[in-house]
Amino acid sequence: MLKLLAAALITSAAMIGTIRFADADPVTITFRFNDTEQEVRGAIDAFEKQNPNIKVDLQRIGWKDARNQFLREAAVGQGPDVAHVAQVWVTEMGDAGATLALDDLIRKDPPPNGFADFAAQDLAKGKDGHIYGLPWTTDTWAMVYRTDLLKEAGIESLPTTWEDIRKDSEAVYKKTGKTGFGFPAGSSASGAMWFLANFYWWSHGKELIVQKPDGSYAIGLTLEDVTESMNYYKKFMDEGDNPRPNLAASDAHDPAIMQALITGNQAMGAMPPNTFKEALKAYEDANPGKPAPFASGPFPHQNNTKSSMIGGRMLVINANSKHPDAAWKFVKFMASQSVFADYYRTQFPAQTSLLKQIDFGAPLKGFADQFPYARTWGAYASGPVPIGTLWNVTQRAFGKALSGQQSTENAAKELLAEIGKQMP
Amino acid sequence: MRERLFIVTMLLPAMVLLVLFYGYPIFDNLRISFTDLSLLGMKKGGNWVGLANYRELFHRGDFGHILFNTFVWLTATSVLLRLLMGLGIAVLLNTRAMKKLRLASVARFALLIPWATPPIVAVVIWRFLLERNGVVNETLMRLNIISQPIAFLADMRAVWPSIVAIMLWNTVPLIALSLLSSLQTVPEEYYEAAELDGATNWQVFRFVTLPFLMPAILVLGLMSVFWSFNNFVYVWLATGAGPGTFTNVLATEVYLKGFVDFRLGYSSAIGMMMAIIMGAFGILYLRLVARQQLEETL
Amino acid sequence: MPASSRHWREPGAWQLVVVLVLAIVTLFVLVYPAIYVFFGSFRPAGGLLSAAETFTIRNYVRIFQAGFGRFIINSVVICVAATVVSTVLSIMAAYVFSRFTFRFKRALFMGILFGQVFPWIVLINPLFVAFATMHLINSYFGMILTYTAFTIPFSVYMLVGYLVTVPKSLDEAAIIDGASRWQVIWLIICPVMLPGFVATATYAFLLCWTEYLFALAFLTQTDLKTLPLGLYQFFGDDYVDWGAVMAASVVTTLPVFLLFLPIQGWISPGRIAGAVK
User: Fold this and answer.
1) Is the preceding peptide bond at C191 cis, omega within 30 degrees of 0?
2) Helix axes C190-209, B159-183, angle to 10 degrees
3) How many CB atoms lie within 10 A of CB A290?
4) pLDDT digits (tens, 9 = 90+) for B211-268
5) What are phi and psi of A378, to 5 degrees?
6) Is the dihedral of CA C129, C133, C139, C142 positive or negative?
7) Considering only alpha carbons, which residue of chain B is nearest residue C87?
8) Min CA distance, A69 vs chain C (Å)?
């Protein structure tokens, strides 16, 4: 026991000695990245080679905790120099004084093709009009299909209207006994129903939060709009073509849904491109050499409405950063074409000029087709209610409606009341 | 005098640490609960709003539902089952038959597995075992106990028992192992005396073993109540408080309000309410239930 | 025959069968999920996404490339240190509570309790601010202190629960024979209470071992992270690396066994026999 204690003390003393401190020269900046290290390792190495006087320390943290942790750190003068954040966090982080205004840096040392080339610029600005983040990557959601199952159910072409999706899902279930459109119907605060609900509203020309010409914000949906969308999704649950256990799945990448798609027990799904790529990879692992019977297609966008979101990530510089110039150099480098071409291939760049040059490949064609019919969160992000709250309230209301905890009408009423309470 | 010095020396290090790590943050939390501090406004600080957060809490429509979930399911059911199962396993592992079958030490190691599993992994595994085509459904169907797969984490009749089952898997080993070690310090003489009196196994358990375990059971029970009442991980990861708000509890509400809505002030107020409820419970429990067994201490 | 085996009379055949069945069911429920994870850790995507039976060690390669070797060391150092300190401090405090009467005793006992009534999540923000001013973020020392402080209350209570069952007459006899209080604790209480102490230390250790919230807030530097943080990294926004999660779970559980293998013998029964006279 004593030996053990002594050993532990010695090891811990030795460890404490090895904690690294940032050296003064060369400059070390910390980059906090929220996806896997191998996606950006090559790019960071290349940057360090090009800039021998700047060292980049990579930190990793999961997406679910990234926002809280960064805000906490920034408030007490800590945190990484450069952070990877969701587009919709930037405005609020800028307003909170957590991130550095980039206007001067952009003016002094602009990115190639200028700032105007970046998507989602509206979300990069704080309420004071300054720019607080550089859009980095873009993605969107689309529908994905098991083509073999569709064929088995006698469906020849991919659905293009919401009614088609409903009918085809039903047909798959009736003819093959398998899941039609299996979407995650769970109620977690960061779940996927939020997206599906909005896509449905947007493609019908409506939106939850609108900005009026005088600059004020309002709810853009009526009780009928919300109830109708709930009824639409509820039919999938009630008729059995989306099995009830999916009420416990909140993420597009929930293993139950992924497995059903990969093993051919589900015909239709909705997800971001990275999730779809994972599914394709898993199918290949399980069926080496066989062509993957998958296709993707945009959400219905009759009348040229938008039907999906341009989501994505930005890079921000910590307001406490001691090396803002080095940090900006790094941020600019990471958003350059060579990084996306040579190293960071799991994501699409946020510059319109770069996005146009990308060949998405056959299975991901639906995502490319979706981009022109996708929109940013716009008024949602600049409005008075935090997006996280809108998201949570919507998830809860849909969860209540789809599970039968409440009638769709009551759930819709509650949703509007909850959000209404927080509007000025 | 020497005795007093001894007492102070023995208590001081623990007390200093506790004051540092609980005392300060608790007072800070109390202060925050009277403000409208937001996670986005940590730099500026919040404005004083008096009791507004507490008033809002009491005027919510679903407060009763959340309290019911927290008290009945998350706390009472899970704690009672945990103690019963823990006691059962401890007694089982201590039987002569277990030793004769050479299973006792194997089982002691088996207990470490669920215990060493981080809650997130525990929930993830069980979510899979409880899937539509998962092992649990398959087994129940093969045994003809059910004819249709059960949506364990989505069906309102099954979701709470399922969450409790996951909690039990992860936490019963603590109880079992603690009680087992307690069992093993029962003086032999007690058993010998009981045997001489011709007591049955049940009587030995009831009048020798159980009274001896009582202090440990009472402490474990109290701690389990605090721990379950304040725990948000299992509900959060298993159902995200859904379907809808069906499994929402106070602790998930603290998380939602603090880290999703960024309202640290309001979230702190819920935390204070939880602390007051548990504090009152703790005092009553020690006074009324544990008094006799821990007489020396209280 | 060892004293302990006299707890029950010689078991009959039916008793053996009942115990055996119960034991197997219990063991199965405890272990099955672990076996599930163990096999999954050798399959692509943890075997969750498709039914193909492919064997691979890529999951393990991947997690060690992501720094798991380092995370294991960090976890072991932080948890062992915190467990040792917390158990020693708790034994000291619990001994005093179970043996003496003094002023403010009840208040202090209740005070220790009070720390446990708060949901830890609300304490994170205030603690983080305090840690930042004391430069305890990203340091082993800060983490060890944190875990020590957060395991003491339960340990003290648990140990008091054990110690009240040891008759005071034991101490008093030794003191009359000329032993000091420290000697009493070390030479008399420790051997008798060893199973209890080990169980308490096990609790403290495993609480630290699986802890996530504090580690997340206080350790952001990659080379200081603990195992649960490393494991959470594989839960991405667009997909979860299930193979890595399973391999990481196996790697998280194994050191616990290696550490407790030698200690397990100490939870052996019967040491108190003959001591109480």
Assistant:
1) no
2) 150
3) 9
4) 889 988 998 999 999 999 999 999 999 999 989 999 999 999 999 999 988 999 999 9
5) 45, -115
6) negative
7) B14
8) 6
